[in-house]
């Protein structure tokens, strides 16, 4: 499944080389245009689409990749449906610049 930042989302489902891709349309409305608030609109759009896909596909696990904009919707849908949600926990720690 792709998020709202990956393409137009006009084609909601796309079969590519035997793999089904579920597309999420970009967030719309005033909230989608406001600084900071736009991220909440993006997550709401992703959460709504993910809930629809989970209902249709019935996965065993929801695995969200970075950024956190994907994790919060995945966790919410996972909790609502009783499906385990997983998110990578690897973090980049910047090295201190040499003096």
Beta strand count: 4
**Which segments are poorly predicted (pLDDT under 50) over 5 or more consecutive residues?**
89-93
Largest sheet: 2 strands, antiparallel
Radius of gyration: 16 Å
- Percentage of β-strand residues: 5-15%
In which range does the helix fraction lie? Answer: 25-40%
Query: How far do the termini sit from each other?
Result: 45 Å
Strand neighbour order, sheet with most strands: 1-2
Q: Which structural class best describes the helix and strand composition? A: alpha+beta
**Individual helix count:** 2
* Mean pLDDT figure: 83
Shape estimate: globular
Element order, helices and strands? EEHEHE
Molecular structure report:
With 99 residues, this protein is an alpha+beta fold. It is built from 2 helices and 4 strands; from the N terminus they run E-E-H-E-H-E. The strands form 2 sheets. It has a two-stranded antiparallel sheet. Strands 3-4 form a two-stranded parallel sheet. Helix 1 (37-57) packs across helix 2 (68-81).
What would the keywords be for this entry?
99 residues, alpha+beta, two-stranded parallel sheet
Secondary structure blueprint with pairings:
Blueprint (H helix, E strand, L loop, with lengths): L12 E4 L2 E4 L14 H21 L3 E3 L4 H14 L2 E3 L13
Parallel strand pairs: 3-4
Antiparallel strand pairs: 1-2
Helix pairs in contact: 1-2
């Amino acid at each position: 499944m792709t998020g709202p930042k990956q393409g137009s989302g006009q084609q909601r489902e796309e079969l590519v080389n035997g793999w089904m891709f579920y597309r999420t349309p970009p967030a719309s409305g005033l909230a989608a245009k406001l600084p900071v608030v736009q991220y909440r609109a993006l997550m709401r759009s992703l959460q709504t689409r993910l809930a629809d896909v989970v209902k249709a596909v019935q996965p065993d696990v929801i695995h969200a990749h970075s950024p956190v904009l994907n994790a919060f919707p995945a966790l919410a849908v996972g909790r609502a449906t009783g499906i385990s949600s997983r998110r990578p926990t690897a973090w980049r720690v910047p090295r201190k610049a040499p003096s």
